[in-house]
Amino acid sequence: MKFRTRRRALTLRTRVNDSLQFNPFVFSRLFFLWALIGIMGGVLAGGYWIVLEHLMEWLAMVPGLWVIPLMATAGLLAGLVIYKLGDPGEMDLIVNNIRFKGGQLDPRNNLSMILSSLVCIASGGSAGPEAPLVQVVGSTGTWLAQRFRLRGEDLRSLSIAGMAAAFTALFGAPLGGSLFALEILHHRHVVEYYQALIPAFVASCSSYIIFVLITHTGLGPTWQFPLYTSPSLNDCFLAVLYALVGTAVGWLFIFIVRRCRGLFRSRRLPIYWRMALSGILIGTIAYFVPLSRYFGHDQLAEVLRSTFSPQFLLLLMGAKLLAIALTVTSGWRGGFIIPLFFVGAVAGLLLHSLLPGHNLPLILISCMAAINACVTRTPISTTVLLGTLTGFHSIVPVMFASLTGFFLSPKMPLINAQLGVHTDEEE
After folding, report:
1. Sign of the CA dihedral with 117 first, then 390, 401, and 289 last
2. Is the CA virtual torsion 216, 197, 127, 360 positive or negative?
3. Interatomic CA distance for residues 381 and 117, integer angstroms
4. CA-based, 20 to 30 A from 253: which of 13, 22, 269, 408?
5. Cα–Cα distances in Å, from 193 out to 5, 199, 336, 359, 376?
6. Which residues pair with residue 284 across a beta bridge?
7. Contact, 133 vs 44, CB < 8 A?
8. Nearest residue to 117 (alpha-carbon basis) of 99, 135, 101, 100
9. In angstroms, what CA-CA distances link 280 with 64, 66, 233, 287?
10. Which of 201, 139, 138, 210 is nearest to 169 (CA)?
């Protein structure tokens, strides 16, 4: 049976090679693999999103104080899944493997990642689905490359293309998703993996189309921002000033995360008990500050269309920062990009409540860009992503805000693998 399967795979590769032997165009046979991983990524992301939406809708009906035992149980169940099926690792592991293992992402723990992240996110964890899907689709790219016997940069590029496909499906931004997949890996310069740019872009376009067809999401902005009118050159300088607030919140987030890592550092406590304990803490925060629950996709829209006092905004920002930190350090699965955008928007609303005469959309976008660029060190893709997600038509001030957050970020990054030094986290 194995012999027949290998023979069929070899026959397929031979036919593809033969059919493209005469090729007067720029594209090569690899184009079809880039498009294929994009299609696979769109299918995986679309199916994941539909299941996640149904689970969230069901679990959101849990009333009041019951959210605490719900999240404790969710942490315990997700921890047992990871304990039994294998630990799929975090973003540090992905970056390490791309940099130091030739781009090979291990697909063996994908089932564990899918099941545990669905439980964590749907129950109300303050982390989003982008990181789990990046691991799943990126490792699927590795698997596909191995099936077609790709080596070296071709294999690495296909893995990165899978990562880009996952980012794009969730963000709805093919260019932003492509750049983010490259930029999140960087040590000093985003062009380090420039060979993967076109593969990532092709996969992102394919993934985007499939995801939209499956989920029936619209093509417009994800969040309806206040209209940005009368742009001027002064807005670039103001964006830098507003970005200082977002950057300061980014520093605060990194500080909280590092303290929470110490809280859950003990290896003597099994992961399922650590996650159950964290579930109690996150659930308690969600009970007292309901808007801090979940990863912020829908909650951000609610915050934008509502009016809150400065005191509540300060409370919400602190509660959300702590909830995200507890989520990502205790073993709960999920990413913190969308949650950081949520925190940035809350910080912007808080700043605007103190400076009511200033431009609200510019304050919001500047704080969102700065905090994400500060924490993830992705100023280029952050600019493009926010322009797509919010419909903010003038990206020049956003560029200034993103660069402010990037250049004022801590010298020691939150994602340790971005240092460019091989660590044991991949083992």
Report:
1. negative
2. negative
3. 25
4. 269
5. 33, 11, 23, 38, 17
6. none
7. yes
8. 135
9. 14, 11, 49, 10
10. 210
Task: Answer for the pair 105, 94: CB distance below 8 angstroms, yes or no.
Answer: yes
Question: 133, 334 in Cβ contact below 8 A?
Answer: no
- Residues with Cβ within 8 Å of 90's Cβ and at least 6 positions away in sequence, in order, are 131, 328, 425
What residue type is 423 in one-letter code?
T
Could you tell me how many helices (H) and strands (E) the chain has, helices first? 17, 0
Q: Are residues 135 and 113 in contact, defined by beta-carbon separation less than 8 angstroms?
A: yes
Blockwise average pLDDT, block size 10, the chain, 427 residues: 56 53 62 90 93 91 90 94 82 67 76 91 89 88 86 84 88 82 66 74 92 82 78 90 96 92 75 91 94 89 89 95 92 88 94 87 94 91 88 88 93 69 46
HSE of 38 in the Cβ direction (CA atoms, 13 Å)?
Answer: 27
pTM for the complete prediction?
Answer: 0.86
Phi and psi, residue 335, nearest 5°: -110, 165
CA neighbours closer than 13 Å in the CB half-sphere of residue 224: 5
The whole-angstrom distance between residue 415's C-alpha and the CA centroid of its chain comes to 13
Q: Which tokens hold the place of 93?
A: 């592991």
Residue with tokens 């926010």: 386
Nearest-angstrom CA–CA distance, 384 and 372? 12
For residue 140, which amino acid is it?
Answer: T
Q: How would you class 244 by CB atoms within 10 Å of its CB: exposed for 0-12, middle for 13-18, buried for 19 or more? A: middle
Instruction: Tell me the domains of the chain and their CATH numbers.
Output: 33-215 (1.10.3080.10), 234-420 (1.10.3080.10)
User: What is the residue-averaged pLDDT of the chain?
Assistant: 84
